[in-house]
Protein: Capsule polysaccharide export ATP-binding protein CtrD
Amino acid sequence: MSLDLYDVHKSYPMNVGRKHVLRGVTGSFRKGERVGILGRNGTGKSTLVRILGGVEAPTRGTIRRTMSVSWPIGMAAGFQPALSGADNSRFIARIYGKKASETVDFVESFAELGDYLNMPVGTYSSGMRSRLGLAISLAVEFDCFLVDEALAVGDTKFGRAFAARLQRSGLILVTHQPSLVRQLCTRAAVLDQGTLTFYEDIDEALATYNSL
Structure:
C-alpha cells in the first residue's frame, strides 16, 4: 500500500505565460513510513501538500493511492469557521462513518483545546486549528497523516501523544524545519526548483537542504 506520483507537474496561468511550481515529480510514499519533505519558503511545498492530499489536481501526471491519506493538517481548509470545534468534529465523523460522540470525546482528550472546543473555529489561533485537525484525523485513523508545516509538537502532553500515535501509522511532513524532520521522520526528501529528490539517509538530506 502506498501513495505514488508519476511525472507530476503543476503550473498556474499568469498574465504572460505560466508559473511552473512542480516539474516532473516522481516518487513513492509507503504505508507506515514517516517521510519529511524539506523546502524553502516559496518552493511549492503547500502546492505539493494540496496535491498529495487530493485537494488540488496536478496540471499533468498521475497520482495513485492504495492507502488512505488524511487531508492536509495545518491548512485552514476544510473547517467551517462559524461552527465550533466539536461541531466540526461531528460533521467529519459523519462523513467518514465514525460515531460522532466517540470522535468528539477523542478530540476533547487529545487536542487540549479546553473550553475552545465549544467555540467557533474562526476564533482559534493557527496552532489550535492544527491541533484540532490532527486530533480529528487521528480519530478517523488514516494510514498516513499529511502535515503541512508544523505543529509545535515538543515535549508537551500533546506532542508526546502525537509522537506515540505516529509509531502506529505513516506520516508525510512538509516543512522548512530540519529539526522536525530529524525528530519525527525515518526518510526525507528535498523540494527545490520544482523537483523532489528522495534520500534514505536523513543526514544527507539535511546537508543538501542546508546547502541550498
Notes: The beta strands are 2-13, 18-30, 34-38, 60-65, 144-148, 170-175, 187-192, 195-199. The first strand starts at residue 2 and ends at 13. The chain is about 35% helix and 25% strand.
